[in-house]
Amino acid sequence: MRRDTRDIVIVGAGPAGAVLAYLLARRGLDVLVLEKAALPRYKTCGGGVTLKTVQNLPFDASPVYEVQADGGILSYAGRQLLKADLGWTVAWTVMRGAFDHFLIQQAVGAGAELYEGVSVEHVALHDDRAVVHTSHGPHAARLLVGADGVNSPVARSLGMLPERRVGVAVEAELEVPAAGMSAQGAYATFDFGALPYGYGWIFPKRDHLSVGVFQARSGKAAGLRQRLEAFIACQPVLQGAKMLHFQGHPIPLGVSRQPLHRGRALLVGDAANLADPWLGEGIYYAVLSARLAAPVIAAALEQHPCDLSEYSRLVRTHILAQQRYAALFAGIVYRAPHLCSKLIERSPRMQQAVFSTLRGDLTFSQMSAVLVRSLPLILMEAM
Q: Are both 310 and 236 inside the same structural domain?
């Protein structure tokens, strides 16, 4: 039965929306999630869930983990430079359709309500409520959250984040002969020679490999499918592979200084432009933004007038400050990919810093400090 005014309406049932719905429902709030797709749905993503992401999830998501990646492979234009057995888990791989569906099921189990197949047409903010006009009629709430991705209809309707830097990823799921699956093993591959200002990846799944390329530049994805096909052709483990699925998707490049709240609305995850500007990783920032938003929303519901400004401040402090360092590192790597790849190959110190940052043991600012402090030793190791 439809209620006149909910506590919160969340648009989008991806990781940010699902985790936020779970956290708010656990607080006893009346939460409605609107999702345009029928779930589960395919989502373009390498599907790497890092340790820092797992540590920030408010529940155990291991039932949908595919492979535990305990090693990393660095290659350049198809030539393997480094195969590192790290002795600790960098990430777990998932199929995003199953992962996202599992997350939203936890939110529903906590008391949130989910409407699927509902498209947002426009949003109106009033002094006492927000109204989301959809393909299935209007939904009113005391607060509104846009968790609806990089092309967020909520943000667009409210005139938020008008300036976005967006990269592009294209990905394929590949059925690979047994020899290729065995050679890849439980390793995640990164290749910074796959294309200009970007990289290629290979992530192991339970019965196939996810392969893609990401370009960290604003603009259209002209030629990216050809870049992906060239990347596949130059990787020995992918010889004889059969493409099962192909799809592209825009990736927000982060570090926006624009406010992420307006009146009774705020943005989380990709809708808030919160993806890593180096690797394009967005799941961690989606989950973290949800965790930052939940207590602010709960407090704002008790305030008159409603004030969500603390959320924008928390994102600037805990996410954007780190993404500025990530953008600096990305600029160096993508301007000199061969040199940086050789440094990682030859310097154990640089390997430790990079993989520890991927895992979450170091922040990007801490990694930058380590690299600057250790640069003479890194150069000596690389000679």
A: no
d(CA 31, CA 165): 31
Number of domains in the chain: 3
Q: What is the pLDDT of residue 255?
A: 67
* In the block, residue with structure tokens 């749905």: 41
127 lies in some domain: yes
| pTM of the predicted protein model | 0.94
Backbone φ and ψ of 130, nearest 5° = -115, 145
**Residue 281, SS3 per DSSP:** coil
283 lies in some domain: yes
Structure-model confidence comparison of residues 165 and 156, the more confident one: 156
Strand partners of residue 252:
166
Bridge partners, 120 (sequence order): 134
Inter-axis angle of helices 321-335 and 337-346, nearest 10: 100
- The encoded tokens of residue 90 equal 């960098």
Q: Do 314 and 259 belong to one domain?
A: yes
CA 256, CA 251: separation in Å to the nearest integer?
14
Q: Does residue 180 sit in the same domain as residue 155?
A: no
User: What confidence tier does 1 reach under pLDDT thresholds 50, 70, 90?
Assistant: very low
C-alpha–C-alpha distance, residues 249 and 230, integer Å: 19
What does the alpha-carbon distance between residue 98 and residue 33 come to, in Å, rounded to a whole number? 18
Range scoring the smallest mean pLDDT among 155-164, 166-175, 184-193, 300-309: 155-164
**Is the predicted pLDDT of residue 219 greater than 60, yes or no?**
no
